[in-house]
Amino acid sequence: MTAVPTTSSGTSTRYDRLILPDRVHGSLYTDPAIFAEELAKIWHTTWVFVGHESEVPQPNDYVRKKLAMQDVVMTRDKDGEVHLLLNRCAHRGNQVCDDQKGNSSSFRCPYHGWTFRNTGELLGYPYNKGYGGKNKLELGMGRVPRVASYQGFVFGSFAADGPSLEEHLGAAAGEIDRLVGLSPEGSVSLTAGWLQHKTRANWKLLAENETDGYHPQFVHGSIFGVTGSPIGALYSDASTAVTRNLGGGHSENDLRPEFRGFDEPMRWFGTTPDRVPDYVARMEAAYGDDARRRLVEGAPHVMVFPNLFIAEIQVFNIQPVATGECVQYSTAVQLDGAPELNRRMVSQSIGSVGPAGMLLADDTEMYERNQRGVEALQPEWLEVSRGLVRERVDEDGFTIGAATDETGMRGFWKHYKSLMEA
Amino acid sequence: MTDPAIPDPSAGPQHDIVAGGSMRTGRFVVPGVGPVVESEFASVSVDLDHEGNSVRLRIEDLRTGRVRHLDALELEAVVWLPEGHLTQLLDPSSDRWRG
């Protein structure tokens, strides 16, 4: 593990010494004390993506999810409201729900039978005389204090107060809007099932990589070659695509300049309108003249701080486990009202991030090698300077770099530093 | 005389139960006792019983083998049960574990 720099520099903070404009210190990925501080100041404070409303479509549906290392039960109560409960009995701390999903208005702890509504409220306990009768205890399952959703994406925050979800998302909300705008019904579902990829790497290596346009031509050369995908060429110095710092730690690879240049509907998906005629017809019926623009520009490639990655056709939910371990949950996007495209979404996702997929296996190999690399003592620093020489501000005021620049990483670290110093 | 609807508790369930979560899809029918409604918290079979002069619903708690029959009027009462009353019934100390 690289040592944390101790050289004092006047009034600078610890993170001033670890995070510089053009490089970050290796200990950020290896120091257990920093990981513990991240849990407190990021994962247990800011808004974290947990799941999607479509995973609990019916009243009393529930699914088990993760919020960092916390086991969370996402429920929809009988009135339709979504809750995030901590999966722990208020009596002796036993795990209450064991199935990954189900439908139940109430949950009964298997240890002593304490029973809770799916809102977390204590409903009753066996042999109540031991407590002086019914309704004598003001105890319930723990709850994530704030729960909010945007376009069906459910986020939780352990901070009782703080920025609203809309404030947290900022410009990244527009990218989620772009995704749902590819559905003829203006909404998406995440119901194709989640794959879980255990990854022996620090979560930040993944967050940084998601909008790193420098690696695809190297790491993903095999899938680009096998499939004949035109995507690889989008990530080069000749590309007109840009890397955008969206603020708030969010960033995107905006490939629209390239796709607009080709002006070919469905090129972003690697197909042509004649192969998905029903989808194209539904889009035209829903959006009229604007349908063509949507079908040309395609889906977003956006990293929403700290753990939601929308990669055009699939969604990733990244959750930390330890300093050098995290889990990537991935699922195919399902555009409501687009069954023809959804079948292809699932097939493509299986091919890219499935158990024998050719995309995520490559990335994960790099994450794990990266983690092993940063354990080395020298050199202590990791570069994030690529593109500083050509960075500029776009017409909307966002800092942008070229397709292969580390503009997104620099935005990530700026926000990370602000949270860790708060 | 022993109530035939209440089996000897030491005898346990009267039917084989399919292990794991495979029955939770609601697509399984246990021969002789009907379709199964199951979650991780309870496992109950439901079936129509035609032995009486009019049809009844036969419900069996597959974890204990306890059976209850509900006639049409009782079922209608369940449909009209206020939410609060139903919630009271879910309190484990209301009946089964009253102590």
TrEMBL record, chain A:
Residue ranges of domain Rieske in the record: 47-130
GO molecular function, one term: dioxygenase activity
Pfam families, alphabetized: Rieske, Ring_hydroxyl_A
Keywords recorded for this protein, A-Z: 2Fe-2S, Dioxygenase, Iron, Iron-sulfur, Metal-binding, NAD, Oxidoreductase
Gene3D superfamilies: Naphthalene 1,2-dioxygenase Alpha Subunit, Chain A, domain 1 (3.90.380.10), Rieske [2Fe-2S] iron-sulphur domain (2.102.10.10)
Transmembrane segments: none
Keyword Glycoprotein: no
Signal sequence, renumbered to the chain: none
Family, as annotated: Belongs to the bacterial ring-hydroxylating dioxygenase alpha subunit family.
Protein name as catalogued: Rieske 2Fe-2S domain-containing protein
Organism: Nocardioides zeae
